[in-house]
Structure formats: structure tokens, C-alpha cells
Amino acid sequence: QVHLVESGGGLVQPGGSLRLSCTSNISNIYVMGWYRQAPGKQRELVARFISGGSIDYADSVKGRFTISRDKSKVWLQMNSLKPEDTAVYYCNAILGMSYWGKGTLVTVSS
Question: What's the CA gap between 64 and 56, in Å, rounded?
Fold first, then answer.
């Protein structure tokens, strides 16, 4: 079973940066990434690694967010943050089934 633990959320001003981390107890999972859920909205993809090493980014974060990884961790570098980026950010991994972390809250506000 895959266990995912996120960290790095917090309060940041518009235009600021945050770096989220996700640690997995299982190494070398091909499909891993980040999703987010804003209040009153559905969970949506932010960025993820897929088979073959390709990366998917949501259009809303392209050019601002960067996903990276090593064998058991995935990071999300978030720059030029906007109030609409406020959400709970979840780490996701797919290994036979989909696994989720508990999430970390990112609040972008002045």
C-alpha cells in the first residue's frame, strides 16, 4: 500500500512562492503528481508525471509551477502565486490503484 505525506503549504502573499513536497513510502512509482481542490470546487489536476517521463500541467499553472521528482519524492515549485491558487493541494500516486495524501493547505492572500 502506498502512503503519501505532503508538506510545505502555508500562507503567502500574491506574487510569492511556495514549494510543496510529497514523500512516498514506495519508490519509483511512474505516475505521481499534484491535484488541488478549492472551496466549493471539484478536485483538479495541477501537474503530474505520467508514463515515459512526460509531464502534464494544467493550463492555469503553466509557466508558473514546476513539478520535479526523485525516486520517492515529488515537489511542486509554485511561483507568481495568485489568490485563485488557494486550495488544498493533494499528492497522488497510481500503482494499480489511485492513492492520495491528506493534503496541505495553500492560501494566497494579502
Answer: 13
Which residues of the chain have a pLDDT value below 70? none
Task: Give the pLDDT of residue 53.
Answer: 79
Report whether 94 contacts 39 (CB < 8 A): no
d(CA 106, CA 110): 13
Give the pLDDT score at 52: 80
Distance, C-alpha 9 to centroid of its chain: 10
Q: What phi and psi, each to the nearest 5 degrees, are found at residue 92?
A: -135, 140
Alpha-carbon distance of 30 to 24, in angstroms, equals: 12
Cell of 100: 492520495
- Residue 85 makes CB contacts below 8 A (sequence gap 6+) with 36, 61, 78, 106, 108
**pLDDT score of 51:** 80
